[in-house]
Amino acid sequence: MAFFSEVKKIWLAYYPQLFMGMGNTLLIALVSTVIGLLIGILVGIVRTIPLSRKPLLRWVQRVINFLLSAYIEIFRGTPMMVQAMVIFWGYAFLSGGTTLPLLPSAILIVSVNTGAYIAEIVRGGIISVDTGQYEGAESIGMSHFQIMFHVVIPQVMRNILPAVSNEFIINIKDTSVLSVIGVVELFTQAKNVAKGTFAIFETYAIVCVMYFVMTFSVSLLLRLVERLLEGKSTYTICGSQSDSASMIRITKEDAPND
Amino acid sequence: MTDEPIVVLKNLTKSFGTNRVLKGIDLSVRKGEVVSVIGASGSGKSTMLRCINLLERPSSGSIEFCGENVLGKDFDLRRYRTKVGMVFQQFNLFNNMNVLRNCVVGQRRVLGRSKAEAEETAMRFLAKVGMDAYVNARPRQLSGGQKQRVAIARALSMDPDVLLFDEPTSALDPEMVGEVLHVMKELASSGLTMIVVTHEMSFAREVSSRVVFMDGGVVAEDASPEVIFNRPANPRTAEFLHRVLDREV
Ligand SMILES: Nc1ncnc2c1ncn2[C@@H]1O[C@H](COP(=O)(O)OP(=O)(O)OP(=O)(O)O)[C@@H](O)[C@H]1O
Ligand SMILES: [Mg+2]
Description:
The complex is a heterodimer of chains A (about 260) and B (about 250). Chain A has about 260 residues and is mostly helical. Chain A has a single domain (about 1-255), classed as MetI-like fold. Chain A has helices at about 1-45, 55-75, 80-95, 100-130, 130-140, 145-175, 185-195, 200-230, and strands at about 235-240, 245-250. In chain A, strands 1-2 form a two-stranded antiparallel sheet. In chain A, a hairpin with an 8-residue loop joins β1 (about 235-240) and β2 (about 245-250). The radius of gyration of chain A is 25 Å and the shape is flat. With about 250 residues, chain B is α/β, with parallel strands linked by helices. Helices cover about 40% and strands about 25% of the residues of chain B. Chain B has helices at about 45-50, 75-85, 100-110, 115-130, 145-155, 175-190, 200-205, 225-230, 235-249, and strands at about 5-15, 20-30, 35-40, 60-65, 70, 85, 160-165, 195, 210-215, 220-225. In chain B, the strands form 2 sheets. In chain B, strands 6-7-8-3-9-10 form a 6-stranded mixed β-sheet, sandwiched between helices. Chain B has a 4-stranded antiparallel β-sheet with strand order 2-1-4-5, with helices on one face. In chain B, α3 packs across α4. The interface between A and B is large, with 30 and 41 residues. Magnesium ion binds next to α1 of chain B.
């Protein structure tokens, strides 16, 4: 069939270029999701600090919370393609013509955008942790940040992992909008190849499969990570009442229920 | 028991919005005393207990701990909380940690103890409550009674001067109440100061050195168990006991 032979021809001629684009797409998506996660956790924690009883501090907290909400609302409420243009050309405008290097710009834009989404996911996760967890920690004198770091965030992380995986997958697809500022990721490379071969359908069919291979592998990989994070379902009882030297393994099913 | 008061509440009030829950509580607890707090649902027992370790901020009145004003501006709240432990009805163990880490994390982060010392202390108290074999278990893998015993060990690991209990057996199946009460009795006889909100009248009668009956946000009667259970001065006390003891039989 003409389609397959054309696809084969394009692939053999251009796969180094396409792989290079794919590499950049993955790099931008991965680094940005990780940075976005860090931003999101930080913003989520700050936004859930209880208001201080000291008036001045409380006022400062209100201002910070306002700024953080503004950040979240603006970045969730505008298209990333437009954000990319505004940040990239806004910098060029303010600096009098010099532009930021492309790859760091791409990572900056996607990170800040992802951070806005994940901040809300983290806030939801923090709110949904049982108040008893906080009270248990407060009752032994732990500070807000200690409670967050040792008790709440570990529980939140496990609960939000599926939502963060989802953000990662969205980022793999959405880096394609960065072609508007000329970042050489997979979509930009597809455009270049299509322009050279005039085989638009065949080229994008290849790229379509490449995107799917990326998102589906990531999806499978993260599901595996989730399973690992579930942790062991068994624990060891050291010794027993009848035989003090014995080791008994108890499985989840054997363990007493509440 | 000494005559030295360790926790003193004076005219303590607490309102939630317009709802006045505590209407002027006066209570003095001496070192080594075991005080049971009884009273009808909604009388403010939990609220009083939560005010003592400042999980709730009192609206007015004062709380003194070893003669120091707890509500003062420069009071070190976190150090105070290590001195006043709390055992909750719902256990409130950290879900993301195993039994040992539950008992170690506060000692290390708040008291600054070394890992070795914290673990040794934790193991000592876990052994005391009979849970030392379960150090690797997660809270979700334990029964209610086991969780509560770990929660007691966690509180004890901080070396508190006073331990507060808010209905520690109310969320337990009947067959697990005994194991927790047994641990509490041992603690009581070891000389630990305890304030215990409870619906277990047998515990109040047999273990405590004093019983406080709360009614409508005030301390309606404060006397020895012998007086409270046999010849209460306040007719409301008699009425309450009549109701709950009838149900128990
Ligand atoms: N955080 C809160 N916000 C508003 N009202 C509250 C709050 N906590 C308690 N209350 C109210 O305070 C009153 C006393 O509650 P509290 O929990 O102290 O009673 P209790 O004596 O412990 O009762 P129980 O035996 O049922 O535990 C109740 O009417 C309750 O609705
Ligand atoms: Mg209560």
